[in-house]
């Protein structure tokens, strides 16, 4: 059964449970959508699935076509030079894999429905901003996938234009704007939702420990699974190196442990090397933890909540309590104030509105007193 989103289908298993999948057909991966239909999280999950599908190689083509040597000085040829570069090799393994899959997908596409020529065979001199725009707009229904294409192409030409490489004179993707996302991404937990989760999973449980680590340290899912007691120094601060970008630019983070976090740790049963372990006493993988935490949210009736949403909740709480952009950057490890500004702007709007609402107070509005005092009405 096909539903409202393109390429998203509902399937009912043998236990009569409805399951939703993103699938573009033969040669493409079939990706499970676990969010609840009709929610903003469902739309976000569909976008993420589209991005993952866009990154995956098209297996509908013969292997000989996918592996055919590129023509010199074409778009595909330039991408291949980039893959062989030291700069590409320094990226995280996951970043390398996703970027390569995205670029392979773009060079395999026909330039138009009326022309069998593929973008990979377009000479560099003719691979213009218009070409990048076409590749972006083909994913317009899924902004994250579209923006992923622009970013990947932009990085290739940025590398190619450096003096030591000198393959091209300009970057056709440099001025191509990103598409605006349809929503705010992962749902940001409210305080009431945090309390609901904590009631279902009280202090001392592994789920409560995970809640505390995500909310009170603001770390990513890929980092929370690596945190352990050995990272707490004598000064009471938590020292760790972020997983993101560790291969290219390692970033050491230092965060003070809040009293509430110390109390949660003291009352929890901890693993040997990491705070959080599986039922087999092994550290979680990032994806494994995400799936496990998803189930704990479901048990609390919070089917629309996720681990990443707690990081957003922490940033929202901090901003509403007066944290500056640079303070948010220090807490959450952001390199640019652009991300922090999303939270401070919302907090500032709330504060300004609260301070300014009296300017539209008209006092006694004609007819209001009569309505309020009309017992018969």
TrEMBL record:
Query: Gene3D superfamilies given for it?
Result: Intergrase catalytic core
Q: Does the keyword Lyase apply?
A: no
Listed InterPro entries = DNA_brk_join_enz, Integrase-like_cat_sf, Integrase_catalytic, Tyrosine_recombinase_XerCD
Where the record annotates domain Tyr recombinase, the positions are 184-357
Q: Name one GO biological process term.
A: DNA recombination
> What keywords tag this UniProt record?
DNA integration, DNA recombination, DNA-binding
- SUPFAM superfamilies per the UniProt record, alphabetical: DNA breaking-rejoining enzymes
Q: Which GO terms describe its molecular function?
A: DNA binding
Task: Output the PANTHER family linked to this UniProt entry.
Answer: INTEGRASE_RECOMBINASE PROTEIN MJ0367-RELATED, PHAGE INTEGRASE-RELATED
Family per similarity comment = Belongs to the 'phage' integrase family.
Name used for this protein in its record: Site-specific recombinase XerD
